[in-house]
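Sat 14:20. Reprocessing the chain from the morning session after the first attempt stalled halfway. Input below, unchanged.
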Amino acid sequence: MAKRIMSWKVGCVYPIPDAHVDDDGQLVLNRQSIGELSPELMTLMSDDVVATAFPECPAAAIYGYDRGERVREQLEALPTMEPESRRIQRVMLGHLHPLDKSNELKLSQPVTAYLLPKGARPDFCIVVFDSTSAEIWSYDKIVGIVGKPEPEDSALIKFYRGDGTDHVGRTLDDILAFDDFWLEHTHDYLQWLFPIPEPSQYSARVPVLTREDIAFFRTDRHLRTQQIRALDRMLAFYGLKRRDGGIFPLPGLNMRTHIWLKPAGHNHLRITRIIRSLQHCTQPGLARRLQSVVIELGRSVGQVKDQSIGYWLRATD
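Finished this time. Tokens:
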């Protein structure tokens, strides 16, 4: 077990929020809460998953479906004449079970009992290695081995601080330097500039805004300033400008050049995301000012449909 612990990377151990043992002795996990802990876990939780127990330590494994099938094949291929192989098969294959597609994941009672010895506090941690596998440990066991877990800054916070990049290697400054044509025709950057708490429908590689991230935005002025830089770039793209505490149209704003003023289009969804992200990232004043100006101009200068106006109105709820 010591060798396994020594291979863990710093910052991969997270306390699991919203976990509890139900009346049937099953550990109940919240898929969304786990996915919010890291990009790797977000990807893992977006897949069908299976769970089992480890033969060498009191922990449970969570595998993505494809990884779980490979593990099953490897276990079944072990030489059955060897006592140790039979023991591993008995523990891992005997406890292997799929977790359904719902947001509530239930580990079986035998697996829960295996990782939670009598008398241990019913709190749990998750150790993530990559986007296809993770381990569940009781809090008491993991703290006794690696000390109190402290999660590292998320990929989103590193990106905003300038210490990291997005999922394809772009920094925040790289994105803000691209021209309007690139901003219009590239579809995987806005989720980094303006994160929201829900996973993207189009890519599992973009960040989800977590409670921890929101706390960083609340206490770190630099992060808020970085997001205002991103807002200023998108305002220029939309023919708008932030000035004297307000947001105003630039000269020459028109529906032909600034296509967000047309009845429909993907930029309406983008604007909804920007308003919601500002609201969640503790910049509600900016969110409301942007909301007000796009609604007014969408009606007076453009021909934006009532459906999009409704989305913008509800974005600060």
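Confidence is low (pLDDT under 50) at residues 1-11.
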